[in-house]
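Journal club prep — side note

Before the paper discussion, L.F. wants everyone to see what a predicted structure for a comparable chain looks like in token form. Sequence:
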Amino acid sequence: MTDLDLAAQTRLAELAERLKENDPLSVDSELFIREVKSNVREQLEPKPRSLSTDFVIRELRSVSQEQKRRVTIRSVGTVQHIGNGIATMSGLPMVHLEELVTFPNGVQGMVLNLDRNHVDVILLGADTGIRGGDVAEATGRRLSIPVGMSFLGRVVDSLGRPLDENRPIIPSEFRYVERIAPGVIDRAPVDTPLHTGTKIIDALLPLGRGQRELIVGDRQIGKTTLAIDAILSQKNTDVKCIYVSIGQKKTSVLSAIETLRNGGVLNQTTVMVSSPDDPPALRYLAPYAGVTLAEFFLDQGMDVLIVYDDLTKHADTYREMSLLLRRPPGREAYPGDIFYLHSRLLERACRLSEKNGGGSITALPVATTQRGDISSYIVTNLISITDGQIVLDADEFNKGSKPAIDIGASVSRVGSAAQEPAMKSVVGALKLELSQYEEVARFARFGTEVNEATKRQIERGQRVEAVLQQGPHKPVQMEDQVILFYALAKGFMDSVSPVAIPQFTKEMLAYIHSHAAQSVDQIKYRRELNQETEDELKRELGNFVSIWEKKVKRTS
């Protein structure tokens, strides 16, 4: 009879075999097994036949820390196939989802697919130098990127590496790219305005800090312009901005950077770029890296505006990766978790309670439609996730209306809860007037005879449209918008032809800033219209209209 009883010998053999299978490359595995056997035999001498399986298990668990340190555990795998930014590997028995893997050429990849027989890894760099048969090792770490205040004013890639030629970036810390969004208890209601500088948005579709507002429309009709104008409007404010470019042409990105620099807001903005020729993994990670940086500012109690331009290309990149990963395609060939892809991103935009710092992340995702179809798969997903949408109409854009926003299809679900009292008091009936004008004007286009009251309604609607027109990259300050809409609501523009409205408003604002500076400051800092301010505005607007009418008579 041997030292160990039959059950104990069998159990020990099973454990030893399992250790060999799980750790085939461990140089100290045999030593570990011998030491455990020797330890068990020493315990057998007093009671050689009473050893149980439980005793063997206890002895295996009680191996000293020194013995454990001798066992070097490494999880390695072999490259079976490489191409299109994805490596298919065998091995890696202890790897986890989203764990980083290092290849022989120094490039790292992230595990995105676990199968019984293979592991799929997306490369975070070029696949040059990686061949079939190469051995890669799991690092045991998740992907993290550098964050910090030093990223403001810089152009970086999806991993936080600088793309401009300025000094190196010294990060404050490293943060995981994937993070759970703050819970409902940690949040506060969205009630603080975020001015975009676009008159039609600030008046009819107001945004609040912590809101998620989708910008949707066809190609080349002003979606990026609206988002860039929103960043330009944050000049001289405490709002930090992040512009995430996902698969955009480099010329478009360079143009946006130049616009931000000329607008004086680049020093409070981080531009994160993932170009079309980058590996798919970098385009996939770009929006998550952007919001990770935004969360660093959020945790410092700051307000952040982040633009994702655009999430349609992000969805296309994920579809491309998923098909290469052999995941089963669903509707329109997108994978089944495409909704989760964007929901876990946009849920990280929020406004925190004062107890948690009081910071906010306002998200402006951009999506592209085909021929104005807002019922497409990705767009409807995003509409259901966000707190409203700004819809741009290609027909209005082609007619020369800029910004070409479709008021009927656009909505802000936060609405006037995040609008300044001064603005709210002067734009109350504006949206209704626009809707009525569009309905009446539609009949007038067919040659239908209309009465004088209807003609006046049409003319007023044309003036409203003229006031709302705005050129690209020319944001209007909040106090100027209040003065414009006050003059419109009180009838000071009724004698001005719609064609002359742009010149009239330009000269009117200059006159008011010169002759009613105290009222302008009252609106700017107090955010409200009191009786004294209204009286001064009425007086000075009346004076300006008299000057304007005399000027028109002289030139006619």
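L.F.'s comment for the group: The radius of gyration is 32 Å. Keep this in mind when we get to the figures.
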